[in-house]
Amino acid sequence: DGGITQSPKYLFRKEGQNVTLSCEQNLNHDAMYWYRQDPGQGLRLIYYSQIVNDFQKGDIAEGYSVSREKKESFPLTVTSAQKNPTAFYLCASSPGREALTNEKLFFGSGTQLSVL
Amino acid sequence: EDQVTQSPEALRLQEGESSSLNCSYTVSGLRGLFWYRQDPGKGPEFLFTLYSAGEEKEKERLKATLTKKESFLHITAPKPEDSATYLCAVQARSSASKIIFGSGTRLSIRP
Predict the structure, then answer these.
(1) Over 70: is that where the pLDDT of A98 sits?
(2) How far apart are CA A105 and CA B111, in angstroms?
(3) Across-strand partners of B86?
């Protein structure tokens, strides 16, 4: 089945540690995104990528980093500079190369990140 | 400033009791308005896209409508399996690189 796979489902971070969240898609979509979801708040955009080897910052990029070396993969690293990392992280993709056009987003099932 | 506000935050209905969820938006030229359904611990699932005032779309017990300032998600004769959080999002023409999400309405349907 085509879709977006996020792993792990749950992740714990120790203080000062960098952690990486995986996102893989087999939908052949050009655009991929990372969102953060906090309880009672809307989704906030962290980073997005329109094409391999290119990505742009979203609204809350500080303390995060990404790479897009392959079309299928868009991993997110939560660095130690992110002081409040506890949240539900969602990866999404859309077909078009022009990111965030009026196309629907396909979401993964999310990763819950907590701080130890 | 572009903004999306959803109301109510939470809604509890009896099975079969119809109601509506509201999404009010302020955006400099609407490119598209989206509705998603999100189950606990899962990613959002796309429901509808609306592009212009007066447009309506339906899917099973759900109907989405759009005016120049708000969108409604009408749910007719809901069933317990319709329980979820419903998210509204807008995309502005002036900033196509940004989709703004509301905080959602948690809908609970009692049998």
Answers:
(1) no
(2) 32
(3) B37, B105
